[in-house]
Amino acid sequence: MDKNIAVIRGDGIGPEIINEAIAVLDKIAQKYNHKFTYTDVCMGGCAIDKYGEPLPDAELAKCVNSDSVLLGAVGGAKWDTVPGHLRPEKGLLKLRSGMQVYSNNRPAKIWPQLASASPLKESIVKKGIDFIIVRELIGGIYFGKHETKEQNGEMCAIDELIYRESEIERIARIGFETARKRNKKLCSVEKSNVLDSSRLWKSVVTKLSREYPDVELSHMLVDNCAMQIVKDPSQFDVIVTENMFGDILSDEASQITGSIGMIPSSSLGSTTRGVYEPIHGSAPDIAGKDIANPIGTILSVAMMLRFSFDMADEADAIEDAVSKVLDKGYRTADIMQEGCIKVGCSEMGKLIIDNI
Ligand code: NAD
Question: Any bridge partners for residue 189, and if so which?
Answer without folding.
Answer: 220, 241
